[in-house]
Design a protein that fits this description.
476 residues; alpha/beta; 2 domains; seven-stranded mixed sheet
Length: 476
């Protein structure tokens, strides 16, 4: 197998930069240094990429499912072989602690293996009430454009791409500008795994380039993970072109702890659920809602556990919290914290940028958070936990639902029947009982309200971009 080219091959020299008008920039969150710059695709490059994607998927759709399964298995092999390069690059480009970056690559490999194993069952023809003379088959529709964020540069892309590719569609990745190195390296891994040229491709474009791709007849649909503003804009453009979209637009997930919960386990899960990936996670314990009788005890234990988190060099394996991915996002987070404090929130820990080199923000805990504060109403995408107290379970559910978002949530109680009943009252796309929110290929992920629509992963992730074709023999 050919060696994956090192990260530096994508670097553009200063002499070349003088000839560029636009480029995506990868800037180290460790010290602010420019790691690499990637020129945005011009019209000729966009046309070539879309033409290759169209040609690639037409070959891929005619590839037997057994062969597509084998390519996915090989993709898992390549990902594992290239884990050191992939993980280090994610750490360099967006600051992910290296141990978590290694875990992300392994999760992607497991994703490929799961879909490879379950492909025949997921794509099998379905019977109908008509009987043996009618069935439903699932056919690919073409290349799907994936507009992806930076916080999980491999998992975010592949959790949508792998089921799309399993079904015989193509995938065109438009990644976030600050992780374009990760995008190109991932595409190299896909090519080495055996995907036909153009089946998995990268398109480095500005928003106007995204618009052009959406309008192009060769793009069959669009999958977006990102902000509400970006999702709404892309969905409008796709709607005008009569193309399906799947949107995952983030949220401010509730983490509800009722009085009968296992408090030690809940605290441990809340710390992981809020601070993993330096708090830059869509499905995370963003609003921690505590039932009155246990609020004080939980808060003390949560503060003790948060103080023990290691903040430092993300290339060190013992680091749990690294620098935030972008300097502008740290400024935005700090502003949200300051406005919340001015509105009456109580600062229990942190609350400021960490002085010195690196884009670090101190692990922060806010208490007495209430509606009307950014810490309650908005998504805080960084290492900040918002604690609030509920009078009882009914009040906790009301606080949880008092949000324009509805992506995921967690509920802690020892009463399984009670949890099942309360789950039906929560306005979220997912609910994790006695755990923190997570993504897993065996179950769908997606949201309601302004968190978006459609689902990724599981059966749903395969079928979102498939043509459910009815075949009916001899109706006479």
């Amino acid at each position: 197998m050919a060696r994956i080219l090192p990260y530096e091959v994508h670097f553009v020299s200063p002499a070349q930069l003088t000839a560029m008008n636009d480029y995506a920039e990868s800037r180290s969150p460790l010290d602010g240094a420019v790691l690499a710059r990637y020129p945005y695709a011009d019209d000729v490059t966009v046309e070539a990429t879309l033409a290759q994607a169209d040609q690639g998927w037409r070959h891929w759709r005619d590839t037997p499912l057994t062969q597509r399964q084998q390519v996915l298995r090989q993709f898992a092999v390549v990902l594992r072989q290239q884990t050191p390069a992939l993980a280090r690059l994610a750490t360099l480009e967006m600051g992910k602690p290296i141990a978590q970056a290694i875990g992300e690559v392994e999760k992607c490999a497991l994703l490929c293996e799961w879909y490879a194993e379950h492909g025949p069952a997921l794509l099998a023809d379905q019977t109908t009430p008509v009987g043996p003379d009618a069935y439903i088959s699932f056919l690919p529709i073409g290349p799907i454009l994936g507009v992806m964020p930076w916080n999980f540069p491999y998992w975010q892309a592949l959790r949508g791409a792998v089921p799309i590719l399993l079904g015989g569609n193509g995938y065109v990745l438009k990644h976030a500008p600050n992780v374009m190195g990760c995008a190109y390296l991932l595409a190299q891994c896909a090519e080495q795994a055996g995907f036909p040229h153009g089946t998995f491709s990268v398109l480095n474009v500005t928003p106007s380039g995204v618009s052009r791709a959406i309008a192009d007849r060769r793009i069959a649909g669009v999958a977006v993970t990102g902000s509400v503003r970006a999702g709404a804009a892309i969905a409008a453009q796709a709607g005008a072109a009569l193309k399906k979209t799947v949107l995952e637009l983030g949220g401010n997930d509730p983490f509800i702890v009722l009085a009968d919960a296992d408090l030690d386990a809940a605290v441990q899960a809340a710390v992981i659920g809020r601070f993993q990936n330096t708090g830059q996670v869509c499905i995370a314990a963003k609003r921690i809602i505590l039932e009155q009788p246990i609020a004080q005890a939980f808060t003390k234990r949560f503060l003790d556990a948060t103080r023990k988190l290691v903040v430092g060099d993300p290339l060190q394996t013992n680091t749990y919290i690294g620098p935030m991915a972008r300097y502008d996002l740290r400024d935005e987070l700090h502003q949200q914290v300051q406005v919340s404090l001015a509105a009456g929130a109580e600062l229990l820990l942190g609350g400021d940028k960490i002085a010195g080199v690196g884009n670090y923000y101190a692990p922060t805990v806010l208490a007495n958070v209430a509606p009307g504060m950014p810490a309650f109403d908005q998504e805080l995408f960084g290492p900040v936990a918002s604690l609030m107290t509920a009078r009882d379970a009914t009040h906790a559910i009301a606080l949880a639902n008092h949000s324009e978002f509805g992506l995921s949530g967690a509920l802690w109680t020892r009463d399984r029947a009670r949890a099942a009943a309360l789950a039906r009252q929560l306005e979220t796309g997912g609910l994790f009982v006695n755990s923190f929110s997570a993504s897993d290929p065996r179950v769908p992920i997606g949201g309601v309200k302004k968190s978006g629509y459609g689902r990724e992963l599981s059966y749903f992730g395969v079928h979102e971009f498939m043509n459910a074709q009815t075949v009916w023999f001899n109706r006479a």
